[in-house]
Design brief:
Blueprint (H helix, E strand, L loop, with lengths): L1 H21 L2 H14 L13 H21 L2 H10 L7 H17 L1 H11 L2 H19 L4 H28 L6 H53 L22 H30 L4 H29 L1 H25 L5 H15 L1 H4 L1 H7 L6 H29 L5 H26 L8
Helix pairs in contact: 3-8, 3-9, 4-5, 4-10, 5-8, 5-16, 6-8, 6-16, 7-8, 7-9, 8-9, 9-11, 10-11, 10-16, 10-17, 11-12, 11-13, 12-13, 12-17, 16-17
Family: Belongs to the major facilitator superfamily. Monocarboxylate porter (TC 2.A.1.13) family.
GO molecular function: transmembrane transporter activity
Subcellular location: Membrane
Length: about 450
């Protein structure tokens, strides 16, 4: 009797193996890929979406953003000051490379840092990142020569910011799903606050204590906020030892990811142009120097709301839908308000302020919603790798965007119309890629929430 049962079991196993052999593996792969594109990877994972631990992670991320993106959002003030003082014998294009390389390393290093985060967690990253970031600002304050500014700010500062920023934004995504847009938006408002505080601190303190001590005070602020980030940030998922520290080119086989990565590249190509050149533009239009330095603070103040509110809206009406709307506004505001203020003879502070407020609000989502959109189309266990892949690609935009704009400015003998047109065109191309990503992932119906 036992022999008969074993024979039937063996026959059944042979039949199953035969059926599996006869299956078309290509068809199976296409079917699995199709099903994966229809479902969000996090659907089967339970998220807290709130609670003391989750919101403390958001606070830690906010502290990290205040320092990293506060400095990143203030580079226009630094460039304008250096071009009139220590580096006055260099061209705007030459000086812009200091801040372009900083931005490039800020994002490019994510290709290594993202997978390390997946494998080992965040503490081995954020602790050296916090120390290096604060040290870079202190060394920046002591610099006088071009190479000193480059090594202290561009190299040390860029790498350290990436060590701190990448895990800080990735950690939030491990604690939130339904409210991910809101949580990430709140965290990234820290960069907006820093972008308001630091230009004002530098401007007010330079006449009193000099440029060096003004920067050192900023460095001490960053040291405090970075320490709070180290204490509050924590991960939730177990380490993924299989994650390798390489660019995951296979991710580009996913049409949604490929289109989103291209859109991110275009955002980074355009985003820093107003932040870097608007103070110089205001001085070119004969705006009072004190008020010209406040322009960036106005932009960053508006971006605080622009990072939080779109995140709140995105959780209800779709992350990609919200990004499409805000990027469209960035293009329209650049090609209308900024272009008009450049075309008008003489000083027109009304148009300038209007552009800073409107663009600051609209551009905020480029920081807060990009990680959320990536998380929506990614397996969270591989999020660090995909995030690193995206921003290593997008970092080429941060490296080249500002110098290209500077070259256009030089070719037009200091007139800004060509630079503004380049900025607006980048946002229009970005809009096209976002529409494609939304269509590939959620379909082409206008009412689809995606």
């Amino acid at each position: 009797m036992t022999t008969s049962t074993d024979s039937l079991s063996t026959a059944s196993e042979c039949t199953q193996q035969t059926e599996q052999t006869l299956r078309d593996p290509v068809a199976d792969e296409k079917m699995v890929q199709s099903e994966n594109e229809k479902l969000d990877p996090e659907e089967l994972i339970d998220y807290p979406d709130g609670g003391l631990k989750a919101w403390s992670v958001v606070f830690g991320s906010w502290c990290a953003m205040l320092g990293c993106f506060g400095i990143w959002n203030s580079v226009g003030v630094f460039q304008a000051y250096l071009s009139e003082n220590q580096l006055s014998h260099y061209t705007e294009g030459d000086i812009s490379w200091i801040f372009s390389v900083f931005s490039f390393l800020f994002f490019f290093c994510g290709v290594q840092i993202g997978p390390i985060f997946d494998t080992y967690g965040l503490k081995p990253l954020v602790i050296p990142g916090s120390i290096g970031f604060s040290l870079s600002i202190m060394l920046f304050s002591l610099s006088n020569e071009y190479y000193q500014f480059f090594l202290s700010f561009s190299v040390l500062g860029g790498i350290s910011c990436s060590l701190l920023f990448t895990p800080a934004i990735a950690a939030v995504n491990q604690w939130f799903n339904v409210r991910r847009g809101l949580a990430t938006g709140i965290a990234t408002t820290g960069g907006g606050f820093g972008g308001v505080i630091f230009p004002i601190v530098v401007r007010d303190l330079i006449p009193k204590v000099g440029f060096g001590w003004a920067l050192r005070i900023v460095g001490f602020i960053c040291l405090v906020t970075s320490t709070l980030a180290v204490l509050c940030l924590r991960t939730r998922f177990p380490s993924n030892k299989a994650s390798s520290a390489t660019i995951d080119l296979s991710s580009f086989k996913d049409r949604r990811f490929a289109a989103t990565a291209c859109a991110t590249f275009m955002i980074e190509w355009a985003l820093q142009i107003p932040q870097t050149y608007f103070t110089s533009f205001a001085l070119y239009k004969n705006v009072d120097s004190t008020f010209a330095y406040q322009m960036i603070a106005i932009l960053n103040g508006a971006s605080v709301l622009g990072r939080w509110l779109p995140g709140y809206i995105a959780d209800r009406f779709g992350r990609f839908n919200t990004m499409i709307a805000t990027i469209f506004m960035c293009a329209v505001f650049s090609l209308s308000l900024w272009m008009a203020s450049a075309a008008v003879d003489g000083t027109n502070t009304g148009l300038m302020i209007a552009y800073m407020v409107c663009f600051g609000f609209a551009s905020g989502s480029g920081i807060s919603l990009t990680p959320v959109c990536l998380a929506q189309i990614s397996d969270m266990r591989e999020y660090g790798k995909r995030y690193g892949t995206t921003f290593s690609f997008a970092s080429l935009g941060t490296l080249t965007g500002v110098p290209i704009a500077g070259a256009i400015l030089k070719a037009q003998n200091g007139r800004y119309e060509g630079l503004i047109g380049f900025c607006g065109a980048c946002y229009m191309v970005c809009l096209m890629f976002l529409i494609l990503a939304r269509g590939f992932g959620g379909g082409w119906k206008l009412r689809t929430v995606y």
